[in-house]
Amino acid sequence: PVCGKTTCSSRTTYNGYEMRCCTTCHFVFCVQRDFPSSIYNDLYAADTNYVGRLRMAHNVAAGLRITRDLGWFRRLALKWLRKLPAERAILDVGCSSGIFLHVVQEAGWRVRGVEPAQTAADHAKILGIDVYCGYLEGFAEQEEQKFGVVTCFEVLEHVPDPVAMLRTILSLL
Fold first, then answer.
1. Among 29, 47, 88, 126, which residue's beta carbon has the most beta carbons within 10 A?
2. Residue 16: phi, psi to the nearest 5?
3. Tens digit of pLDDT for each residue in 39-62?
């Protein structure tokens, strides 16, 4: 779905979803990528990683520190962000329960999130995160603010057209 070629190999199953790999550009993606936003809560309700992130949001709201629980790629992003001047605006696409944005906000950044799953968006709002519940395209249509950084963790492999999503992200930078 990235380079336009159609030759793919079966890769693995992850969280119950079949993953494929493009033999040309090596992009790994979920076979089923087009879900209406109305079923996101049901889709993720059985995902242990997702449920764990919701639980982490409750822990953060209770005052517990969770930086070590963010996952290696989010911790790496935090390390990179700490090298940049704070007080900039960051958008996290697919922000889930807002844990990453909460940590970034504590470091002085102005944060926004986009999340299609209502339950996760509600958890992020409990943490004080400004979240648009829906898809990035809808957010971009009504958003005038530009962002210094846009993050997108574990999202591109799930969208029908990752290149279009990246173009939308670019328009928000």
1. 29
2. 85, 0
3. 776 766 666 676 677 777 767 766
